[in-house]
């Protein structure tokens, strides 16, 4: 018999805010220009019951997330001389576009993985339980594959659509 015993836990949350000056060399004209980038990062730390170190650990995680964000992220700031948008800035901006489509596609792909797991479990159970221990017919396996593909295809289409929409963002177009 399985008895569920809930254990109290505490989730500590902290935020850190910071800014950095980024120096950029324009890919088009070679002009070097600075810009200031600000970020707010959050850190979480979950402990059983309670801990006096919980807020400090959450703050440490928030600061680590802030340092990573300030080092790796970019703001899309064009060159003040020629107006050119840098490739690294565009790539970062495109990667952040249409997060809802990415989440919806992820949900379809998760359901496809779940369906694949259920199908494989049923096949494995049939191998163990059935007296002849034979694999299902090829036509049944193809039907299973088509079911998984039918569930996954909207997710794949949404990911492709998201990428096409993001690629359509070209501020350097004349």
Your description of this structure?
This protein is of the alpha+beta class. It has four helices and two strands; from the N terminus they run E-E-H-H-H-H. The protein folds into two domains: 75 residues, no CATH class; 78 residues. It has a two-stranded antiparallel ribbon with strand order 1-2. Strand 1 and strand 2 form a beta hairpin. The radius of gyration is 25 Å and the shape is flat.
List keywords for this structure.
174 residues; alpha+beta; 2 domains; two-stranded antiparallel ribbon; flat
Chain-wise SSE layout:
Blueprint: E1 9-25, E2 32-48, H1 54-72, H2 87-95, H3 99-129, H4 138-167
Helix pairs in contact: 3-4
- Low-confidence parts: none
Determine the number of helices (DSSP H or I, runs of at least 4 residues). Answer: 4
- Report the β-strand fraction as a percent range: 15-25%
Helix and strand content put the structural class at: alpha+beta
Overall tally of domains: 2
Largest sheet strand order: 1-2
- What is the share of helical residues? 40-55%
Termini separation: 70 Å
| E-strand count | 2
What is the 3D form? flat
Largest beta-sheet details = 2 strands, antiparallel
Gyration radius, rounded: 25 Å
Average pLDDT, all residues:
92
């Amino acid at each position: 018999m399985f008895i569920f015993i809930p254990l109290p836990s505490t989730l500590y949350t902290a935020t850190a805010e910071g800014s950095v000056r980024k120096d950029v060399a324009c890919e088009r004209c070679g002009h070097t220009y600075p810009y200031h980038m600000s970020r707010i990062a959050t850190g979480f730390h979950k402990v059983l019951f309670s801990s006096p170190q919980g807020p400090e650990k959450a703050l440490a995680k928030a600061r680590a997330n802030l340092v990573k964000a300030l080092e790796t992220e970019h703001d899309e700031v064009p060159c003040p001389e020629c107006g050119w948008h840098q490739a690294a800035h565009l790539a970062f901006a495109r990667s952040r576009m249409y997060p809802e489509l990415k989440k919806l596609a992820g949900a379809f792909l998760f359901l496809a993985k779940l369906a694949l797991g259920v199908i494989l479990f049923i096949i494995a159970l049939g191998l163990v339980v059935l007296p002849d221990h034979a694999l299902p017919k090829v036509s049944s396996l193809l039907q299973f594959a088509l079911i998984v593909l039918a569930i996954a295809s909207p997710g794949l289409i949404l990911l492709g659509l998201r990428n096409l929409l993001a690629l359509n963002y070209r501020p350097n177009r004349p």
